[in-house]
């Protein structure tokens, strides 16, 4: 089973619900998902760092949620680390607000991604297609 690291903000009930629902869609389509909000329960910050770092390293691809006025700093780190390790990053933005250098986020994130998905409605189908295209 191909592994996917699902990166994204997880600080509100809405964010956690979105992440969980997307994780379930990926699981139903044959992907093993590392979801930090589930994998890191009851861990201290140092344990979270090393557990998430290992999760990125073992992933075939990273799916990164970049919603909000500014991209979550932890998500940005996970994307940069994955890109440095030549792990494909699929950036997903369902937020229609403009911010950053390239519509929704910083150019360094945008141009290091294997795919960028900007869609509020059909994003799950587009994520699955992007994962196939990066051979994850």
Automatic annotation (TrEMBL):
Coiled coil: none annotated. The keyword Transmembrane does not apply. Keywords: Transferase. One of its GO terms (molecular function) is transferase activity. The keyword Lipid biosynthesis does not apply. It holds the Pfam family Nuc_deoxyrib_tr. One of its GO terms (biological process) is deoxyribonucleoside monophosphate catabolic process. It comes from the Bacteria. This is Nucleoside 2-deoxyribosyltransferase.
């Amino acid at each position: 089973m191909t592994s996917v690291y699902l990166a994204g903000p997880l600080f509100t009930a809405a964010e956690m619900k979105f992440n969980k629902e997307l994780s379930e869609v990926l699981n139903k389509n044959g992907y093993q998902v590392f979801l930090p909000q589930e994998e890191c329960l009851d861990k201290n910050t140092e344990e979270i760092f090393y557990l998430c770092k290992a999760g990125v390293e073992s992933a075939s691809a990273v799916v990164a949620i970049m919603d909000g006025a500014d991209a979550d700093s932890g998500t940005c780190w996970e994307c940069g680390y994955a890109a440095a390790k030549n792990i494909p990053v699929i950036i997903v933005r369902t937020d229609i607000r403009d911010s950053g250098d390239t519509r929704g986020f910083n150019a360094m994130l945008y141009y290091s991604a294997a795919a960028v998905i900007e869609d509020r409605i059909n994003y799950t189908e587009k994520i699955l297609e992007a994962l196939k295209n990066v051979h994850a």
